[in-house]
Amino acid sequence: MAQATGLLSRSDAVLVVVDVQERINAVMADQGHLSRIAVLVEACTRLGVPVVATEQYPKGLGPTVTELAQRLPGPPLVKDTFSCAREPTVRTALEASGRRQAIVVGIEAHVCVLQTAIDLAAAGFQVTSRTMR
Q: DSSP label at 71?
C-alpha cells in the first residue's frame, strides 16, 4: 500500500472516471465539470497514469458524454453495481494496473463516487476523490 502522505505519484496512481453519462449529466445545472474532467483525463494520459472509466447501466442511463468519451484511452467498463470496486471487470482492471493510489472522479458524488472511494480505501488503495461540479 502507498504511504498515506497525501501526495500522488504518477507511477502509483490510477484515474477512475465514474459514470459521466448522458442522462445523468443532462440534469446537472452547471456543465463546467465536463471540461475539468476532460483536462484531468488528458493530463493523466499524457503523464502515463492509467485511466479506467465506467458506465452504470448504459442501456438506461446512456453512454459516456461524447466530449469525454473521445478523450478516454479505451471504452468504459460497464457495471451494474454502485461501487466500481464491487464490479469484477473494474476491480480486475484496477488490480492489473498495479497502482495503489486511486483518483476517483465523477458527477454523482452521493452514490457511485462515494461508494467507490469507500470500497477502494477498504481494499487498501490510497484514495483521492473529487466531484467535478
A: T
Distance CA 90, CA 53 (A): 9
Question: Nine-digit cell at 43?
Answer: 493530463
Between CA 91 and CA 107 the distance in angstroms is: 20
pLDDT in tens, 77-108: 999 999 999 999 999 999 999 999 999 999 88
For residue 63, the one-letter residue type is: P
Q: Which residues contact 88 (CB under 8 A, 6 or more apart)?
A: none
Q: CA triplet 93, 95, 101: central angle to 5 degrees?
A: 105
Distance CA 12, CA 126 (A): 10
Output the pTM of the full model.
0.91
